[in-house]
Write a sequence for this structure.
C-alpha cells in the first residue's frame, strides 16, 4: 500500500504540474502579450480552461493531504522551515483564484476588469515561481534543523540561487505548456501563429532557465549533474525529453494539436522523473546531510493502508468523471455559456 | 501580540472566513436544484432565470471557498506543525475522503456551470445535485476531523508515543455524529435565512417582485425547516458535550459551582475572578434537567476542574448565549412563516413580514460563528482534548503576527469585493433576467 500512496503522490504532483501548470501559464502568457491582443488571448484562454480550472487545482490539495496524512513529519518540517515561501504561494493562490472568477462573473463590465486582470496575471507568475522555489528548497540541502537564528532557519532555507532558479524554470515550463495547449484552441491562422511563436519563446526560456539551474547547482554544491546523468533512468529520460522536444518543434506548426499536447505532457513527465528518481525516497534533504524519506518517515501502517484504499476508491469515481469532463469540453469552438449574460 | 496569540487569531480568522463560503457552497446547490427542477417541470422562464442568477453567485462563493480551503490545508501545518505531526495520521482519514468529495464537487461544478444546452437536460440537472451532495459530504467529513479534536479516539498515548493508530475509529469518534448533524442543519438555516433576506429586501423595494418572490419562497422553506430542527440537534450536542467535555459545558453555562438542582443561567456577565455571574436570570434545576433529564443530578461545575484546564468562561458563555438566543429567534420566525404558508397567504406581501426576514438576514451566520467560538474556545487550553495543549502545538517560527495582519488584510479585502460583486449581481437582475410579459402568462 505504501507504494500505491507514493505513486499517487507523484502522479498528483505531475498532474498539478501539467494541468495546473498550463492554467498558470495562461496567465503568464497574458502577462507577456501586447495590449491589443490581450482580450483575444483572454477569451481563448477562458473558453479553454474555464470548465476545468477548479478540477486542475484539486491535485495540489490531494498532494498536500497525502503528505500530511501519510508523511506527517515531512509535512510538518517543510511547513515550518519553508513558512515564508508557502505563505507567498498561498497569497498567490488566493489572488489568482478569486481574480479569475471575479472577472468572469462580475455582472458589470467596467474598470474593475482592469484590476482583476492585473491581479490575475501577476499572481499567475508569482504562484508557480514560489511553487518551484519550494520544490527546489526541499532538495537543496539548506533546511537546517539546528539553525539558531531567524535568517538561517527561515530565510536561507529557500533563498538561494538553486531554489530561485528552479522557480524560474517552473514558471517558464508553465508558460510553455499553456502556449502548446492554447495552439489547439485558436480559431484562425493569425491567432494560431501567435501562439506558436509564444510556445517557441517559452520553450527557449525554459531551456535557458534549465541551464541556469545547472549552473546554480554547481555554485551551491548540489550534485544535480550526478542525479540527472549518473544513472541509466536519468540519461534515458533526458534523451527522450530531448527527442520529443525536437519532434515538438517540427510538429508545432503542422497543426497536430493532440500530438503536440501529448509530447509536451511527456516532456514534463520525463523532467519530473529525472529530478525525483535519483534521490527518491529522500524528498527533503537537510543541511546536516540527513534527509526525510518517504519510507522511513511514513505514518502508521494502518493509516497508510486506509489512505491507499481511500485514494484507490476515490480514483474510481474521479478519473472517469474527470475524463468525461475534459472530453465533453474539448471542442475548440464551444463558447463558454457562462459568459453569455 | 505574541506568537501564540497571533497563530490562534490567524486560525480563527481563516476558519471564520472559510465557514461562510463553505456553508453557502454546501447549501446553494440544493436551492438551485429545486428551481432548476421547477423550470424543467413547469417550463416557466422565471425559474431558469433564478437558477442562472443563483449559479453565478455560487461560482463566486465556490471559488472563494475553494481558495480559502486550500489556504487552510496549508495553515494547519504552517501554524500547528507539532499538532499535525502527531495528529495527521490519526485524524487524516476524513481529510483524504474529503479530497475525493471536493474533487467530485469541482468536476460536477464544471459540468453544471458550463453545461447549459450542451447535455441532456436531466443529466445537467443531476450534475447540479451532485455538487450539493458532495459539498455536504465534505462538510460532514471535515467536521468529523474537528470532532476528533474534541473527543480523541482511535489511538493510545503511551510515554508520549501515539500507538495503535486506527484511523477509522478516529473518524467515527463519539462526537462526530452530533457535531456533523448540527453543522449541516446550521448551514441550511444560515444560508436559507441569508438568501431569503436578500430577496425579501428586493420584494419590499418592489423590484422584480415575481422573480424575487419565487426565489424567496425556495430559500425560506429550507431555512425555516432547518431553524425548527436546530434546537433539537443542539440539545443532542449539549448532552454530548456534558459527557465528554464537562469543562466546556461549564464554561458555556458559566456554571461555577457543582450543586444539586444546577440552575440554567440566562444572560449575565461572568465574573471569572470571584467565580460568579452578575445580573443573570437563574432557573434552578433546569441545567440538570437539560443534561440528565431530571432536576436533581448535579452538573459538574468549574470548581471541580483544575485551574490550568479551564477554558475562558466569558467568551464561551457569551458566544453560547448568542447562538441559542438567535436559534430561538429563528425558530420563532420559522413558525410565523409556516403559519403564513398554511393559513395567511396574504402575509407574504405585508411589510412587517418582509421586514422580519430582512432583519433576519445575518442571524444564521452570526449563530454559526458564535457556535464555532463555543466549540473551539471551549476546548482550550487543549488543541486535542486532554491530550495535547494548544501552546505546545504552535510553530516555533517567530513573527507570526505579521502573517496574521497580512491575512487579515487579504480576507477583509476579499469580503468587501465579494459583497460588492453580489450587490452588482442583484442590481443587474432587472437587466439580465427581466421576465418578458409573454413568459408571465405561460402558466
Ligand atoms: C445557524 C446556526 C446555529 C444555531 C441556530 C444553533 N447552533 Fe449550535 N452550533 C452551530 C450553529 C448553530 C455551529 C456553528 O454549527 C456549531 C459549532 C460546531 C458544531 O458542530 O456546530 C454549534 C455548536 C453547538 C454546541 C457545541 C457542540 C460541540 O462543541 O460539540 C452546542 C452545545 C450547541 N451548538 C447547542 C445549540 C443549541 C441548544 C441551540 C438552540 C437553539 C443551537 N445550538 C442553535
Ligand atoms: C469553520 C469552522 C471553524 C471555526 C469558525 C473555528 C474557529 C476557531 C477559533 C475561534 C479558534 C481559536 C480558539 C482560541 O484561540 O481560543 C480555532 C482554533 C483552531 N481550530 Fe477551529 N474552527 C472551525 C473548525 C475547525 C476545524 C474543522 C478544524 C480542524 C479539522 C479546526 C482546527 C483548529 C485548530 C488546529 C485550531 C488552533 C488551536 C486552538 O486554538 O484550538 N477548526 N478555531
Ligand atoms: C467546519 C468547518 C468546515 C466546513 C463545514 C467545510 C466545508 C467545505 C465545503 C463545503 C467546501 C466546498 C467549497 C464550496 O462549495 O464553496 C470546502 C472547501 C474546502 N475546504 Fe473546507 N470546510 C471546513 C473547514 C476546513 C478545514 C479545517 C480545511 C483544511 C484543513 C478545509 C479544507 C478545504 C479545502 C482544501 C477546500 C477546497 C476544495 C475545493 O477546491 O473545492 N476546510 N470546505
Amino acid at each position: 500500500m505504501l507504494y500505491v500512496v507514493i505513486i499517487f503522490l507523484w502522479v498528483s504532483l505531475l498532474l498539478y504540474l501539467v494541468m495546473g501548470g498550463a492554467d498558470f501559464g495562461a496567465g503568464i502568457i497574458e502577462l507577456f502579450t501586447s495590449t491589443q491582443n490581450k482580450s483575444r488571448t483572454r477569451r481563448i484562454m477562458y473558453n479553454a480552461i474555464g470548465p476545468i480550472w477548479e478540477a486542475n487545482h484539486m491535485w495540489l490539495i490531494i498532494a498536500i493531504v497525502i503528505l500530511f496524512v501519510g508523511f506527517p513529519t515531512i509535512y510538518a518540517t517543510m511547513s515550518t522551515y519553508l513558512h515564508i515561501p508557502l505563505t507567498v504561494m498561498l497569497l498567490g493562490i488566493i489572488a489568482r483564484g478569486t481574480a479569475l472568477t471575479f472577472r468572469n462573473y462580475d455582472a458589470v463590465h467596467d474598470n474593475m476588469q482592469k484590476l482583476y486582470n492585473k491581479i490575475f496575471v501577476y499572481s499567475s507568475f508569482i504562484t508557480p515561481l514560489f511553487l518551484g522555489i519550494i520544490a527546489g528548497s526541499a532538495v537543496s540541502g539548506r533546511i537546517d534543523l539546528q539553525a539558531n537564528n531567524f535568517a538561517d532557519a527561515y530565510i536561507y532555507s529557500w533563498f538561494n540561487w538553486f531554489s530561485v532558479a528552479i522557480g524560474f524554470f517552473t514558471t517558464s515550463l508553465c508558460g510553455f505548456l499553456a502556449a502548446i495547449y492554447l495552439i489547439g484552441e485558436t480559431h484562425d491562422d493569425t491567432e494560431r501563429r501567435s501562439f506558436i511563436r509564444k510556445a517557441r519563446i517559452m520553450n527557449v526560456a525554459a531551456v535557458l532557465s534549465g541551464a541556469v539551474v545547472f549552473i546554480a547547482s554547481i555554485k551551491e554544491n548540489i550534485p544535480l549533474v550526478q542525479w540527472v546523468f549518473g544513472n541509466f533512468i536519468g540519461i534515458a529520460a533526458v534523451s527522450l525529453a530531448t527527442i520529443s522536444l525536437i519532434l515538438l518543434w517540427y510538429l508545432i506548426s503542422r497543426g497536430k494539436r493532440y500530438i503536440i499536447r501529448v509530447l509536451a505532457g511527456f516532456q514534463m513527465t520525463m523532467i519530473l522523473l529525472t529530478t525525483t528518481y535519483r534521490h527518491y525516497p529522500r524528498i527533503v534533504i537537510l543541511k546536516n546531510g540527513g534527509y526525510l524519506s518517504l519510507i522511513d518517515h511514513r505514518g502508521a501502517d494502518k493509516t497508510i493502508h486506509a489512505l491507499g484504499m481511500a485514494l484507490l476508491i476515490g480514483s474510481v469515481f474521479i478519473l472517469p468523471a474527470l475524463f468525461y469532463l475534459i472530453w465533453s469540453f474539448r471542442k475548440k469552438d464551444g463558447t463558454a455559456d457562462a459568459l453569455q449574460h | 501580540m505574541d506568537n501564540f496569540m497571533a497563530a490562534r487569531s490567524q486560525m480563527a480568522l481563516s476558519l471564520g472566513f472559510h465557514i461562510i463560503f463553505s456553508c453557502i457552497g454546501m447549501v446553494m446547490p440544493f436551492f438551485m436544484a429545486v428551481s432548476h427542477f421547477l423550470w424543467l417541470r413547469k417550463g416557466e422562464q422565471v425559474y431558469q432565470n433564478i437558477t442562472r442568477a443563483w449559479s453565478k453567485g455560487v461560482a463566486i462563493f465556490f471559488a472563494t471557498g475553494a481558495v480559502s480551503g486550500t489556504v487552510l490545508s496549508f495553515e494547519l501545518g504552517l501554524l500547528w506543525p507539532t499538532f499535525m505531526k502527531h495528529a495527521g495520521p490519526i485524524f487524516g482519514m476524513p481529510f483524504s475522503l474529503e479530497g475525493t468529495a471536493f474533487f467530485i464537487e469541482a468536476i460536477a461544478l464544471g459540468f453544471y456551470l458550463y453545461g447549459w444546452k450542451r447535455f441532456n437536460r436531466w443529466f445537467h440537472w443531476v450534475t447540479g445535485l451532485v455538487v450539493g451532495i458532495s459539498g455536504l459530504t465534505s462538510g460532514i467529513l471535515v467536521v468529523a476531523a474537528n470532532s476528533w479534536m474534541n473527543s480523541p479516539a482511535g489511538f493510545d498515548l503511551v510515554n508520549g508515543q501515539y500507538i495503535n493508530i486506527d484511523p477509522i475509529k478516529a473518524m467515527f469518534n463519539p462526537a462526530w455524529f452530533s457535531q456533523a448533524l448540527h453543522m449541516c442543519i446550521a448551514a441550511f438555516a444560515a444560508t436559507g435565512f441569508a438568501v431569503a433576506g436578500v430577496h425579501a429586501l428586493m420584494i419590499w423595494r418592489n423590484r422584480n417582485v415575481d422573480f424575487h418572490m419565487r426565489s424567496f419562497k425556495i430559500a425560506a422553506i429550507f431555512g425555516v425547516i432547518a431553524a425548527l430542527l436546530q434546537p433539537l440537534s443542539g440539545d443532542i450536542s449539549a448532552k454530548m458535550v456534558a459527557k465528554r467535555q464537562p469543562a466546556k459545558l461549564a464554561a458555556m453555562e458559566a456554571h461555577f459551582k457543582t450543586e444539586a438542582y444546577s440552575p440554567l443561567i440566562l444572560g449575565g456577565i461572568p465574573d471569572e475572578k470571584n467565580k460568579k455571574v452578575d445580573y443573570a436570570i437563574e432557573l434552578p434545576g433546569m441545567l440538570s434537567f437539560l443534561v440528565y433529564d431530571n432536576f436533581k443530578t448535579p452538573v459538574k461545575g468549574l470548581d471541580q476542574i483544575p485551574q490550568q484546564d479551564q477554558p475562558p468562561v466569558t467568551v464561551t458563555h457569551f458566544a453560547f448565549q448568542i447562538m441559542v438566543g438567535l436559534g430561538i429567534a429563528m425558530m420563532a420566525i420559522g413558525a410565523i412563516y409556516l403559519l403564513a404558508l398554511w393559513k395567511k397567504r396574504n402575509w407574504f406581501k405585508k411589510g412587517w413580514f418582509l421586514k422580519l426576514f430582512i432583519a433576519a438576514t445575518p442571524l444564521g451566520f452570526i449563530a454559526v460563528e458564535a457556535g464555532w467560538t463555543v466549540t473551539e474556545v471551549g476546548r482550550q487550553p487543549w488543541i486535542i482534548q486532554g491530550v495535547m495543549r494548544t501552546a505546545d502545538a504552535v510553530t516555533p517560527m517567530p513573527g507570526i503576527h505579521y502573517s496574521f495582519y497580512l491575512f487579515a488584510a487579504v480576507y477583509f479585502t476579499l469580503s468587501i469585493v465579494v459583497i460588492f460583486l453580489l450587490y452588482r449581481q442583484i442590481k443587474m437582475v432587472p437587466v439580465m433576467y427581466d421576465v418578458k410579459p409573454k413568459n408571465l402568462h405561460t402558466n
The two ends of chain A are 49 Å apart (CA to CA). Chain A touches chain B through 66 residues (CB under 8 Å).
